[in-house]
Amino acid sequence: MQKVKIGIIGCGNISGIYLENLTRTFDNTEVFAVSDISEERMKTAAETYGVPNQWTAEQILSSEEIEIVLNLTTPGDHFRICKLALEHGKHVYVEKPLSLLPEQGRQLVELAREKGLLLGGAPDTFLGAGLQTCRKLIDDGYIGDPVAATAFMMSHGHESWHPNPAFYYQAGGGPMFDMGPYYITALVSLLGPVQMVAGMTGKALQQRTITSQPLFGEKIDVQVPTHAAGTLRFCSGAIGTMITSFDVWSSTLPHIEIYGTQGTLLVPDPNNFGGPILLRPAGGSEFKEIPLLHQYAENTRGIGVADLAHCVRSGGTPRAGGELTNHVLEIMHAFHSSSDSGAYAELTTTCEQPRPLKTGLIKGYLE
Ligand SMILES: NC(=O)c1ccc[n+]([C@@H]2O[C@H](COP(=O)([O-])OP(=O)(O)OC[C@H]3O[C@@H](n4cnc5c(N)ncnc54)[C@H](O)[C@@H]3O)[C@@H](O)[C@H]2O)c1
Questions:
Q1: Where does the Gfo/Idh/MocA-like oxidoreductase N-terminal domain lie (predicted)?
Q2: Which structural domains are found in the chain, ordered by start?
Q3: Which of helix, strand or coil describes residue 127?
Q4: pLDDT of residue 172
Q5: Residue from 58, 74, 160, 164 to probe ligand 1 pocket by mutation (most atoms less than 8 Å from CB)
Q6: Which of 4, 218, 329, 344 is 20 to 30 Å apart from 66, CA to CA?
């Protein structure tokens, strides 16, 4: 089958792993053009991964050959570029979060539907071996009916390593919008959609100092909450407890745990693709490590794009699809709006639990 041609807009920090997997791991994708306002970054990306075209964003959008626009810009540009790409008749996959505002996410989902185009977005770590094995264990009844979950992302922010970290403290950043997508997408993939959220948010520091190079010593004004805690009621009835924070130096809390009527499952870091997974059945004396049952335990960022490309050729709904990423966007906002209003936030969006991947796939294939 003819490979699906992809145009990447944004050749920054995260682009390398997408380029790696979309040019070398998956058989159904071809990176046909890259674009960046930094010529140097664009050139490095093209030369490192053998991409034939270095184009402006406008050239990518108006190219007859590009079928999927992969938007790897920073959050403030996600909505504008995704909307333009859909208006130009392109399928779209975007890094997280889908957009800054829930209304923008909704607009993109509607625009894609109206135009008969596919929309998808990061994260796709839930398609990795770790979270897919957890999904299979839950679906196969190893912990009975899930009744509750906890999810904790505790850190002190990204200014110690990211070369240009200011965006993490602007709209679309903060721990919830930056890291929440991994945790919430994992929870929705394991437990289904969310009905309502109660949240509280805070901000420990008004200003942060960059300690990474090349901007060492520069100050960042913190414009968003840097600690978000709350409770989620899933449509299934299960109750989740979650904290995402950039205000914590260290913590021993686990990434994600799922509690069922028949046991407890320790879920691996949802920012990664592998394990370890630990399971302790009701009455069991200890947690035991469960072997990974699926393909893609290594960093396979871009698998969501390859899955969307598969749907471009063969039909179907992408697993890391627009409705899922839009639901996750609304949930993240719900922590903040509930905190601001002092009331539960009822969600207006929902999504299907994404279809699991099969066990025993050959590397590079999705079906
Ligand atoms: N850095 C990470 O480890 C990481 C991990 C997962 C997800 N993400 C997400 O990926 C996205 C990008 O993050 P990043 O760390 O790569 O940021 P970055 O700042 O390193 O890269 C963004 C790139 O987009 C380019 N760009 C912006 N507007 C453009 C336009 N109109 N046309 C062409 N190029 C344009 C910039 O010049 C820059 O090179 C963010 O949404 C982030 O949340 C990042």
A1: 4-119
A2: 4-125+300-318 (3.40.50.720), 126-290 (3.30.360.10)
A3: helix
A4: 87
A5: 74
A6: 329
What one-character-per-residue DSSP string does 52-87 give? SEE--HHHHHH-SS--EEEE-S-GGGHHHHHHHHHH
The C-alpha atoms of residue 354 and residue 315 are separated, in whole angstroms, by 15
Query: Ligand 1 centroid to 99 CA: how many Å?
Result: 13
N-term to C-term CA, the chain? 14
In 235-326, the DSSP E strands lie at 239-245, 256-260, 263-267, 277-281, 288-290
Q: Which amino acid is at 248?
A: V
CA distances in angstroms from 36 to 48, 49, 58, 111, 337, listed in the order given: 15, 15, 11, 25, 34
Atom of ligand 1 at shortest range from CA of 73 = 24
Which residue's CA lies nearest to atom 39 of ligand 1? 12
Q: Are 96 and 181 in contact (CB under 8 A)?
A: yes
Name the band, by pLDDT with cuts 50, 70 and 90, for residue 304. very high
Please report, for residues 100, 166, 213, 271, 279, the alpha-carbon distance to residue 217 in angstroms, rounded to integers and kept in the order given.
28, 13, 9, 28, 45
pLDDT digit string, tens, across residues 145-198: 999 999 999 999 999 999 999 999 999 899 999 999 999 999 999 999 999 999
Which residue in this structure is represented by tokens 């699906």? Answer: 4
Share above pLDDT 70 across residues of the chain, in percent, rounded to a whole number: 100
Residue 259, strand partner residues: 148, 264
The preferred substitution site among 8, 9, 11, 13 for testing ligand 1, maximizing ligand atoms within 8 Å of CB, is 13
Cβ atoms within 10 Å, residue 181: 26
What's the CA gap between 163 and 13, in Å, rounded?
Answer: 8
Of 22-26, 122-126, 169-173, the poorest mean pLDDT is in 169-173
Q: Which residues pair with 146 in a beta bridge?
A: 260
Closest-lying ligand 1 atom to the alpha carbon of residue 122: 7
